[in-house]
Amino acid sequence: MRVAPVDIAGLAKLILSPECKSIAVLTGAGVSVASGIPDFRSPGGMYDTLCPDLITATPAQRNAMKHEPMAVVTWEMFEQNSFPYMEVRRPFILGTKNHQWKATIAHRFFELLHVKTNKLTRIFTQNIDGLDHQCKKIPTEKIVNVHGSISSASCEGCGTKMDFVKFCEAVETNIKDIYNPESGPKESTPILCGNCKKPLVKPTTVLFGRSLPSQFFERVQEDLPNLDLLIVAGTSLVVSPANSLCYSVPQSTVRVIVNQEPVGEELGIDYSPESTHDFFAQGKCDDVFLELIIALGWLDDLNVKDLPPSSAKLVQENTAN
Ligand SMILES: [Zn+2]
Question: Were 209 and a residue from 75, 114, 180, 198 both cysteine, which residue would form a disulfide, CB within 3.0 to 4.6 Å?
């Protein structure tokens, strides 16, 4: 018997039904695209536009980045040379400090889900942008930053925290701007840890090759056994162990995939007409979640002035007719 909805109206009904008591969300870069933050993996994203020749690195390190741009976000590279990571992330760090990006319709939907139904058990976000935390009505403990966050800083070597504003000032004066050489210093100089004096201070994001926060594993164990609905939004589901949520939920859990194309088939997401527990809500995250907000009758609760321009425009287009 099919228990998954077949359309957005059905999903709205499921969310409001008394049988659905616990809802978790797994998000990726797609939920933040409307804020203007580049999706690292998309054309025009960080990996696509990376110019290793501009980065402060040895020829061997540049070759490694040419071969695999993701080398920039590995512990192996950072431990040898922190500049590639710091130079590539510089605009993202300073944009975060300047509150350049706003939470999208998708983020606000999760906030409304908590406020209106009290069924939001957890948001597992793979994003490091911290936009979930702009939604102040979501209690902080409900948000798990699976891959850490760019909006705080600490030493990767000894763990000593650094004040984020002080860290950003150091980034402005010490790290060269590879995207706009006119601004910032001509050469990068290390930002040293106040405790161990090593040049390993960085935002508290999880580098490849480092372990995830223990909170992730604890919350997964705690939340998943009783989950009625898992919403997977804007993620390609290629990064483990975050993607393991998909197949770790009980058989009875309904899984909803919000994405532009099917993802996670190899993880067991069933896109066939015979699927009983999976629903594919195809589209951009903001489009799908706005439709869902309208179906739930929550549109009046969406505060347009809190949204990024493209999201606000989308709401206005949908309310004008
Ligand atoms: Zn240190």
Answer: 75
The pair of three-digit structure tokens given for residue 319, joined into one six-digit string: 């309310």
Is 285 flagged in the annotation as binding? no
- The fold of the 8-35+102-147+213-320 domain, in CATH, is Rossmann fold (3.40.50)
Domains of the chain, by residue range, sit at: 8-35+102-147+213-320, 46-99+149-205
Residues marked active site are found at: 147
Is 51 annotated in a binding site? The answer is no
What confidence tens digit (pLDDT) does each residue in 204-257 have? 999 999 999 999 999 999 999 999 999 999 999 999 999 999 999 999 999 999
- Measured in Å, residue 201 CA sits from the centre of ligand 1 at 7
In angstroms, what is the span from residue 125 Cα to ligand 1's centroid?
27
pTM over 0.70: yes
Q: How far is the CA of 75 from the centre of ligand 1 (A)?
A: 15
CATH code given to domain 46-99+149-205: 3.30.1600.10
Q: Is 193 annotated to bind ligand?
A: yes
State in Å: Cα 167 to ligand 1 middle.
Answer: 13
